[in-house]
Amino acid sequence: MIRYKTDDEIQLIRESALILGKAHGEVAKRIKPGVTTKELDQVAEEFIRDHGGTPSFKNYHGFPASLCISVNETVVHGFPGTYELKETDIVSVDCGVKFKGFHSDSAYTYPLEKVNRDVLDLLDRTYESLHIGIAQAKAGNRMGDVSFAIQNHVEQFGYGVVRELVGHGVGKDLHEDPEVPNYGKRGKGVKLEAGMVFAIEPMINLGTKSVVQEKDGWTIRTSDRKPSAHFEHTVAILKDKTEVLTTHEYIELNYSYKWRNKSR
Ligand code: MG
Ligand code: MG
Asked: How far is the CA of 234 from the centre of ligand 2 (A)?
């Protein structure tokens, strides 16, 4: 069942998303070789709590941290821990904030400074696919228009679109209806209408689309152990426009390596 949001509820998600965007910015300042993923998690949790929010992921079905940190072949749901980032890594940082009863959710994949060109291309094109999907997320379209646009953009490069994990409605619960697949057919799926708020989150693999779950019950990695990229925004369908509620602005401001479009 899709829960349509009132303007007041969307305003609360907007406020939640601003805390989230700034928390991402604090993490961005610290993405460097040698930093442990646990340190990044602590920075995000402290920032969120200091600004009146709570980390959506912490204790969600038993998830132990405030961030999902997924390095290289890990697609999503990686645990922060003692792992130290290396200059050849890519690292996906996924975060959610609950504020005054409403969640927001967004993710960004960082390349460190010695990532191969083919992997930088994967990141650039996955980032592009998120925005190409968002452009189709408007009142009157169908979810399949969003899904198709993402799939169509990335498959031309031979990338694998993960099937097992999808975007989702966002609101009082972190994961609500409808599902937002990153693959699909134009003109199919639920009709997009004012009041819908959902997360669009392409998870795109350099190699095969096939993924496996690690024995910890959470971590998802690619079957062929090639890298995977993940970018996410929470968007609201309004009567006359679509608003991207979350922001990567503070990430782009604070991350020292200006990597986008560097690869091509
Ligand atoms: Mg997320
Ligand atoms: Mg999500």
From this structure: 8
